[in-house]
Amino acid sequence: xxxxxxxxxGFLALSIMAFSQAALSAIPKECKDMAGTYQVAxxxxxxxxxxxxxxxxxxxxxxPGEPIFTxxxxxxxxxxxxxxxxxxxxxxxxxTQPGGSDTFADGIDTPCLYKIGNDLVVYQVDFxxxxxxxxxxxxxxxxxxxxxxxxxxxSRGKNYVFDVGTLPRRALNADTIxxxxxxxxxxxxxxxxxVPEILPLEKK
Length: 204
Description:
The chain is of the alpha+beta class. It has 2 domains: 27-129, no CATH class; 130-194, no CATH class. The chain is built from 4 helices and 9 strands. Strands 4-3-2-1-9-8-7-6-5 form a 9-stranded antiparallel beta sheet. A hairpin with a 5-residue loop joins strand 3 (77-82) and strand 4 (88-91). The chain is globular. It starts with a helix and ends with a strand.
């Protein structure tokens, strides 16, 4: 199963949908857990996550593990606030159906998600019921994205190398994926074509 392709195609389908103001209806109970303060998970192996984080956040000094945004739910309305930009925007927290086109990937339980324009989708995911083969495929898919980012950056003479020695060693593997509850996909349009950059998230 090609998770790289599935993730890319799924996000492209989401990205072409117009951004709409958050609905006034009650927040789905499956989405209540989305409230909180988020950070990029401080994963050091394989290389690529720290570099992508600095690139998409446009913060040359960003270190994974530092808070980047909050999600607040107030009176049945939800808000995303960037802790770097200070921008606060309404969001629509949406549930998904098994096998639906808006899940993180085929066969991955995705209880809730929200999107901001054509640039960002944040997924709540549940890998607890995923089998070993699925966890292996997802791990490889994300690893391939990170590797492709570094190769492309090097080919363009860009140096995003980050000294991961400043962080405790933490590897991306099946165990890490199974414990991951949130994933962000930033859509990079800088080359003129949408390229998804995948960031595992965790709440403070």
